[in-house]
Amino acid sequence: MADPSTNADVWLVVPVFNEGQVIREVASRARETFPNIVCVDDGSSDNSAEEIRAAGVHLVRHPVNLGQGAAIQTGVEYARRRPGARFFVTFDADGQHQVDDVSAMIERLRREPVDIIVGTRFADGRSESVPLLRRMALRTIVFLSPRTRRLGLSDAHNGLRAFNKTVADQLDLLMSGMSHASEFIALIDHHRWRVAEQPVTILYTDYSRAKGQSLINGVNIVADGLFHTRMRK
């Protein structure tokens, strides 16, 4: 386990919507390595806020559900104002993401000339752990997105991302829902952020599987992203 003091300049941003069953454990475990965590309770109707407080991390609340993109934007805006903040990570609340993967991504940001690192499930033979329909949806998203392929990304809708303050200061997500992932790609391209991928392990539990995107939803996300790109120009 890494010494948390070595990660005092890192902030984990965790969007939360009705994750009361798992968020305390997820946040508490991550806090052992990364002491700075902000959870954005995106209008949850369960006990998510209470569980976040019990984990001892920062809490920001949306009075109504605005969507994951809006929650990430709120969390990044909160974190980038904290003294000493240099690196930022988008981290899921449902237990899919691994702290060890975050540590590897942050280490790369410290020593390599990159601005943002995106996790990928399609490296080192890891795709076999991805449920078949999910794998099809993710592959379809890449196939339908020329920008994603041009940037050399194989898993653009992976929610585990680590980036520096240059990215955090310029981040301006306008798409409030799940389509923010396509918008992230558009912003990487627009701002010419230096991007790389990192092989990561996604833990698929019964709990997280029940919340996944279908193939049709994946196609809709890409369509929304392409439409949004045109609107931003």
TrEMBL record:
UniProt-recorded Gene Ontology molecular function terms: transferase activity
Keywords in alphabetical order: Transferase
Keyword Cell division: no
Domain Glycosyltransferase 2-like span(s) in chain numbering: 12-170
RNA-binding keyword on record: no
Family according to the record: Belongs to the glycosyltransferase 2 family.
Protein name (record): Glycosyl transferase
Organism field: Gordonia lacunae
Highest classification ranks of the organism: Bacteria, Bacillati, Actinomycetota, Actinomycetes, Mycobacteriales
